[in-house]
Please model this.
Amino acid sequence: MRSGGFCEPRDCRKHCACPYGSARTERVTAASWMSLGKCPECEDQRATDPRSTGGSDPTTAQVCVFVSRREEPRAESARALLCPVAMASGWLRVSALMQKYRSPLLISTCSGLFGLNLVQHLVPDQTFCSLYQAWSKGEPVQLSPKLEKLFQQVLQDYCVSSPQKFLAFASFGFHPVGAGLPLLPSGVHVGIPANFNSSEEDTTGITDRTIFINGRAVDWSSATGTALRHALVLSEPAQKFALAREVARLDGCLPVLSAAVAPACVGGVWVYSVLLKQVFGLHSGPMVFRVAVNALSLCLGAVSYFLCSDAVGQFVDYSSDRRAAAVSPLYANGGVEFYDKILSRNRTLRSLMGQKGEEMYAPNGNLFPANLLQLKHAPYTARRDGIQAMITQEKA
Model:
């Protein structure tokens, strides 16, 4: 080390084995020396201003010059090689943890999905009712005594074991909606729309409401408005069937079956992965093949979810219809009328909504599928024909 405090090549090699000890040296001026900084390996601030220490002439000092033009690309290439290795190491650690705790992770994931799908049925008064509650002038609409009496009559006709667990409220829309499980303290909540207050003689429950379609209010005196009003008016048997359908779905705890589809498919992904790896002997094979098998298992799980949710949804629809229509022939005839009115309403909405209506509704009034893999609901024509077949069979 010279008196000026500069780090010479031999000093770096002697004290800290600095790889820059063999670097190219050159004579520098005091101005260029000020930009050198410290030795990058030993981190020793040996370069001090010789003008303040009274050292040798900085213009003649032979110092260790760190040539960035040669060393920085070398460091960058080393970091570029280490990044994929670090990422692969992190992925291996995560994979090892998932392999070690796969059973708790699978159970917690399936339980979380099951609870998430059932949340509106677990606390319907705080979630479902707040979403579907009808409002008028900033106040929640109260259910009319007429509809409350009708609802209690449906519960009596259906022979519900715990009628005190079933509550009704005024909802918006044109169809009854419901959520909840009779086994839970929160019970079952069924929403009844305002058009159920209307009849052929009194349509105030419909005509006193303003319905906007494509930004324009429906003119109830026009031909399409008259057709829509006629489709929204239901007879008492049709109203009873619509309510009994919701009661049958919730009283049979069918929402639990629908909520179990997603967790079952998540468990199916794990089963697919294990079976495929075992069949092809990939548990100790290359990682690329295992990743490909996992991706294939995810695709199979997604397809299984769409198909199973479709099948379960249609089973719930048909089962609810059969249970409601089996109450009495009056309810069965009301079911045929109910679905006829739905098809008529959808055909009218198709003409009123223009291009959007043609994309949403079929010419016969059925809903178009949500996508190529999922129908979501059973066709209304099939549900009507199913009830009609029950009536024909009963008569025979």
